[in-house]
Amino acid sequence: METVKHIDPAVTDWRGEIYNIFEGHLGHVALITSKKGSVRANHYHKEDVQYMYLVSGAYESHSCDVRDPHKKQVLHVKAGDIVYTPPMIAHAQKFTKDSVFLALTTREREQGKYESDTFAFSVIDGYINPELKQGVSASK
């Protein structure tokens, strides 16, 4: 399932603060804005690992294991939190405030690579990308 961790400053001095958000190998980083009330994701990845670092705002992170869809989880995410989502965990975010986040993934996202590893899966009511292949459903 997903995990959430709050990131505190690693260094603070008169110049400001340094936050060590991520350490490891990445294939892609995106800066995304989301309006209060909107839903993102509603999908899962077979291989990709995803991290979402919330710069500002707040959201509920809903997830379930596609191999056992009845096993569900809701995390309440606030600014400064990073959410880790492993492969085969369907996830959706419902934004409770206007938000800005960084989406960090281990696989590259150039045309075709994202779509080949991303499968639509309705975790919660809301937007589902019509371009994605359909994943396993909760009724199976």
Any descriptors?
single chain, 140 residues, mainly beta, Jelly Rolls, 6-stranded mixed β-sheet, 5-stranded antiparallel β-sheet, 1 helix, 13 strands
**Rounded average pLDDT:** 93
Low-confidence stretches: none
Task: Please list the strands of the largest sheet in the order they lie side by side.
Answer: 8-7-10-5-12-13
Fraction of residues in helix:
under 10%
Structural class: mainly beta
Fill in the CATH topology: Jelly Rolls
CATH class: Mainly Beta
Distance between the termini: 19 Å
Secondary structure elements and their pairing?
Blueprint: E1 3-6, E2 11-13, E3 16-18, E4 28-34, E5 39-45, E6 50-56, E7 58-65, E8 68-78, E9 81-85, E10 89-95, E11 99-105, H1 113-117, E12 118-120, E13 133-134
What does this protein structure show overall?
With 140 residues, the chain is mainly beta. The chain has one domain: Jelly Rolls. Helix content is 4%, strand content 53%. It is globular, with a radius of gyration of 15 Å. The model has no long low-confidence stretch (mean pLDDT 93).
Question: Brief description of this entry?
Answer:
The protein has one helix at residues 113-117, and strands at 3-6, 11-13, 16-18, 28-34, 39-45, 50-56, 58-65, 68-78, 81-85, 89-95, 99-105, 118-120, 133-134. The chain is mainly β and 140 residues long. It has a single domain, classed as Jelly Rolls.
